[in-house]
Amino acid sequence: MTSIKDVARIAGVSVATVSRVLNDKGYVGQNTREKVEKAIKETSYKPNEVARSLFKKQSNTIGLIVPDIMNPFFTELARAVEDMATKLGYNVILCNSDGDKDKEQAYLDVLKQKYVNGIIVSSNTLTALQVEELNVPVVSIDREISKGLPTIVVENKKGAVMATRFLQNKGCRRIGHIRGSYGVANAEERYEGYKEVVSKEPWFRESFIVNGDFDMQFSIEATAELLSLHPEIDGIFAANDIMAIGAMKAAYRLGRKVPEELAVIGFDGIKLSEVMTPELTTIVQPIYQLGETSTTMLISLMEQQPIEQTYYTMAVELVERKST
Amino acid sequence: MTSIKDVARIAGVSVATVSRVLNDKGYVGQNTREKVEKAIKETSYKPNEVARSLFKKQSNTIGLIVPDIMNPFFTELARAVEDMATKLGYNVILCNSDGDKDKEQAYLDVLKQKYVNGIIVSSNTLTALQVEELNVPVVSIDREISKGLPTIVVENKKGAVMATRFLQNKGCRRIGHIRGSYGVANAEERYEGYKEVVSKEPWFRESFIVNGDFDMQFSIEATAELLSLHPEIDGIFAANDIMAIGAMKAAYRLGRKVPEELAVIGFDGIKLSEVMTPELTTIVQPIYQLGETSTTMLISLMEQQPIEQTYYTMAVELVERKST
DNA sequence: TTGAAAGCGATACCAG
DNA sequence: CTGGTATCGCTTTCAA
Predict the structure, then answer these.
(1) A25 touches strand C (CB under 7 A)
(2) Which domains, from first to last, does chain A contain?
(3) What string of DSSP letters covers A62-123?
(4) Protein footprint on strand C: which nucleotides are under 7 Å from a CB?
(5) Cut 0.90: pTM above it
(6) Which residues does the UniProt record annotate as the domain HTH lacI-type (chains A, B) (predicted)?
């Protein structure tokens, strides 16, 4: 690999000068500049990013920590983050934490040791302290770590209210809820939204709510249980699309027709929701945009650019399809 | 951030000594070692990976270049690669090439500049020359770049033969094929497998094959076209699951019942295939294992360990579900 | 068994 | 406008 020294020697100048033309910084005479550029071309020289990083204490890399890239929500998010990062000159290191506290901390440590410029993270367990100790810009996505930290979330409660009302307007008399994991902020918010709409209904009882743990398999079981306990249920709001799909599968197995006998609505708007038969009605989040926004925000933070806003609550939208 | 110098100063030794205990290399007296370890603990010192990388010309990072992480096949692959890489002490930089030659080359360049230890890539356009010029270990996955290069693929042709025969055994009299993109090796191989089984059939004509471009939307259209041209078709082999799902959707829209009137079989075994209703019969590839194997192989290559084999053809398996 | 010092490949300050 | 050089943080001879 040719280094800056080689280029300098070939061009007959000092490394300082080569560095100047490389970074287009400081004065360089017209024809020395040309000599250098010629030498660069000839050797097809590419600066060593690691050496640069060592000096700059930045590696033009950002870390992305998600629970599991296999979750379609995070897949799309990752794609958006990577697209935007590349566009702005950064690479992204992918980290799957499985929501595990220790793994998260381990990733945080090595990312820091690698001089990443910033980190995008989706975590329930991370504390504000942990993040501040890092001394690296962090933006939290999908889940808030602390009010003070840069965060991008969506209108979870509002979306849940929309979903539940929608079911009512469609004529559902008894609406059940498959909730997400306990302790996960967005699961709680969606739960609250549902509750707000139905809590004053005379029929309502806590047993209309079951935990699906944001997992399809769990949701199938939870739905089966829910439906056997309350056969009168004619509408289900699931806290995410995966669970909604699970609910539809359970209904299918029990011989309950969707949407004729049972309406199902989800939350997220993952691609999968359009692929199902029947296609899933859902509260769609602007997932790709979440990723883009978090990345541009992170990069502004990293580059110390003036920043308008560090807490975004993105709007959600109800998309009606065939399952309701 | 505390550096090796700080640790040395606190422990009252030289940086060389600290380095020795850090890497457990060379002689270190028992009690100096203890002093150093104490200092490390106290300061919770973590070596700077970038400085290390500069010296070693390796960054403990591997690059993963895939066309698009949103394709479920690559999502699962990425997860496997990241899992195994982490287990062995490496991070992974994620790159989405969209199958674009220039993007691929750009990623290759910056990965090299970042001193990645190795690269896993899935590409149709990359040439053996490009890879050799890199001077970085590369393993090609899902698609062969050249016979000489480390590669992991699956039994595409055999799988296609299995799928087509299976349809015949299920009683299908006219079998159509939704093929993958032209010029993509695995699409061609699957096409050949199909052809091998049906080419001597009296009814067979080239028009029983349409191009779905490995895309769901394309497949929907292609299937509709195929079915209107040859309404007698009672079985479809799609070159991947996404397209098989597209075919089922098209059938659904045309009012053709799957599997009663039309049997559909896919290829890949993505998670999605189990989620569909009806669940998709498919040729499953050991996707996760592909990722694991490619990673361990790459790392063996990187670490110059003796390596048994550099060209794997993994077995596929027919999993019968409800769509046939 | 330990330390001094020469890199690794770039950047940026300070002279000239 | 250009060059010399210290520096980033770590590893590895080479001597002592």
Answers:
(1) yes
(2) 4-47 (1.10.260.40), 61-154+287-315 (3.40.50.2300), 156-284 (3.40.50.2300)
(3) EEEEES-TTSHHHHHHHHHHHHHHHHTT-EEEEEE-TT-HHHHHHHHHHHHHTT-SEEEE--
(4) 1-5, 7-13
(5) yes
(6) 2-56
